[in-house]
Amino acid sequence: VVPFDDPLAIEIDAVGKTYASSDGAVTALGSVSLDVRRGEFISLLGPSGCGKTTLLRMVAGLEDTTTGHIHLHGRGLDGLGFVFQRDVLLNWRTILQNVLLPIEFRGGRPKQYRDRALALLATFGLAGFENKRPWELSGGMRQRAAICRALIDDPELLLMDEPFGALDALTRDELNVELQTLWHRSRKTTLFVTHSIPEAVFLSDRVVVISDKPGRIVEVLDIDFPRPRGLDIREEPAFGHYSRHLRDVLERHGAFRKR
Length: 259
Ligand SMILES: Nc1ncnc2c1ncn2[C@@H]1O[C@H](COP(=O)(O)OP(=O)(O)OP(=O)(O)O)[C@@H](O)[C@H]1O
Hints:
Elements: E1 8-21, E2 24-37, E3 41-45, H1 52-59, E4 67-72, E5 80-83, H2 95-99, H3 101-105, H4 110-123, H5 139-151, E6 157-161, H6 169-186, E7 189-194, H7 197-203, E8 206-211, E9 216-222, H8 237-252
Parallel strand pairs: 3-7, 3-8, 5-6, 6-7
Antiparallel strand pairs: 1-2, 1-4, 8-9
Helix pairs in contact: 7-8
């Protein structure tokens, strides 16, 4: 049991990761340290291959750290919801059955969570789609269902690995607004991986910039817009300033060089 006033959700302490590969060891992450506060929305922004996914997978306990350690406060790994780059819904199950999957995995009773699942689906505009199969839905709808699945067990911590990267720009905007609204209501601690500067600025309390090789934190930027936020903040001068600053940081660290 954790004291309610515990201000921290995740401590990432000098964490590094080296993979063994056929051409020798690859250091994906150098040494990364970050304290994530409870209820905070943090984006991890960086070029492809800088180790963002690796970091997220280590926080989720899906991957070991090579050096350093990660401490999850609260319910630990039991309090965690994960949304992947691709929705990874099971095609032979209905949307409702997909959303209830985590309950089955932990040996719970899906029936008891049916109402919650339907309410979540309704929040994300999927009322009436619960008995469809994933292949009957658009990409945006599937990713919404994947978010519902991550939320079904009321996690303390939401880990999202570029969940909107494969969507068209309009759907992506829409989902950004929905996620922002949901986050504003629930204040779930969220770690969100993205390549997109505007997405990071729009959603985050803090944007953590990671450079590659090996991945390390080169900047932590506070985003000071009030909540709830609408897409119109993108027209504000401050939004432009944040974006330009992040772009400069990425450029300085070689994120845009030709590979
Ligand atoms: N299982 C693995 N074995 C060997 N190398 C790996 C493995 N997983 C990742 N890597 C390497 O580690 C580095 C970081 O990969 P990672 O997927 O964490 O980056 P990323 O920033 O999430 O990239 P992207 O944004 O393209 O998803 C890359 O150089 C990658 O090739």
